[in-house]
Amino acid sequence: MDIDLILRNSGALFDGAKITLAITFVGAVIAIVGGSAICAMRISSVGALRVFARAYILFFRVTPEVILIFWAYYCIPLIFATTVSGFWSGTVVLGLIGAAYLAEIFRAGIQAVPQGQKEAAEALGLRAFPKWSFVILPQALKLVIAPLVNYFSEFLKNTTLLSAIGVMDLTLQAYLLGGQTYQYITFLSAIAIIYFAMIFPVTLYARHLEARLSNRSTRPTSWRGFGFRRRSTQDIVSKA
Amino acid sequence: MIDYDFLRSLDFTVAWTYLPALLSGLLTNILLTGIGFFCGGIVVGTLLALANLSSRRIIRWPALGFVEFWRSTPLLVQAIWVHFAVPSLTGIATTPFESASIALIFNVAAYCSEIIRGGILGVGKGQFEAAKALGMRAFATWHKVILPQAIRLMLPPLVGTTISIFKATAILSVLAINDLLRAASRLSTFTFQPVEIYTTAALLAFVVGLCISVLGYLAERALKKRGAYGH
What we know:
The structure holds two protein chains of two kinds. Chain A is mainly alpha-helical. Chain A is built from ten helices and no strands. In chain A, helix 3 (47-62) crosses helix 5 (86-112). The longest helix of chain A is centred in the last third of the chain and has 35 residues, at 184-218. By secondary structure, chain B is mostly helical. Chain B has ten helices and no strands. Chain B has a domain at 29-178: MetI-like (MetI-like fold). Chain A: The chain crosses the membrane at residues 20-43, 55-73, 79-102, 184-206. Chain A: It comes from Mesorhizobium denitrificans.
């Protein structure tokens, strides 16, 4: 591997890495907002919304991402008679796919909050807003954080797909540099290492969070809250 | 905002005309999914899982490094890398399909080895010890005690992985394999009707993905009925 060649072209690779991170952040925002909305529909009491959310989740989970990205890139400009950049069409599609996954992650978190918590909130006469924002969601959020971080390591991998529609991300930059210098292996190996350096820490962090959560939940807490000490949310979650 | 005149002008007969080309592309995707699942997931994945479970560090650590590296890099990069690196490292020129298969097999193997390892570890040490205490030989221990329980644990994540493999095969079209996406993009430049072609392609892919998830659901239910779930 020719380190010198990589260093000489590090500017272009850095530009590519910036685009990759931009896709990740914008896509993450869309995925979190969209995922929350789809999750709310999925657990709503309105049947039509539930059916829509289930169909949405099913469709985006089983259809290949690249085909959807190509569809959006070539079809949306025609259907809406506008121009859309590859960056925006691709990022929005990745965000919508992410929303389907995150909706399921959020739902699993909410359902893992014991039913008694909901009943207790209702027994205390809490209305919908305080019940959700002070009782259920804070507990659900703790359970959701590890799979959420884990999903973003997947998301970071999916950003490479945008290079197929000409977004100048890290992969496409490396591929073009490889074409210019006929040193494909050098540049492709370099970005493989860069991707690994970006994704692996995220995976490790997700595992760390997961381990911490499962350690807490195995801790014997049944007798610790005895008496009048106010029990923390974590103790309540861990009894689930 | 929506261009209704354009929507009215859509003519899906073009998709019907070229359906055979799209279907033959789809068949390539299904074939690659099968290669990925059986060669990668089951064969190489099991070997990697066993290497990861080995008590010898010299076997365990390289296997661990391999799994972590293939799991933490994007398949697109892996596929292009394999396509350029294998010919120059080994001197054997691979066709795009072969390069894609190699990348897919290793990628899937890395993911599946974790599932298989998790399934085997999930069975619990007590089961091994109980089998040993009963005087069962290695084959009987694995065949009668460990695997039936491990498969029960592995099946749900394996179904999810199979859907992921199918979705991943579409990525491999960057290597110029005649898969669904490549067929669709060639047809759309040829017919100038991208909306009809890409919509049909997306729907076809969705149907296959749906079939895989339904099959997985049926397999899980069948396993439950056969009593593999321990009751």
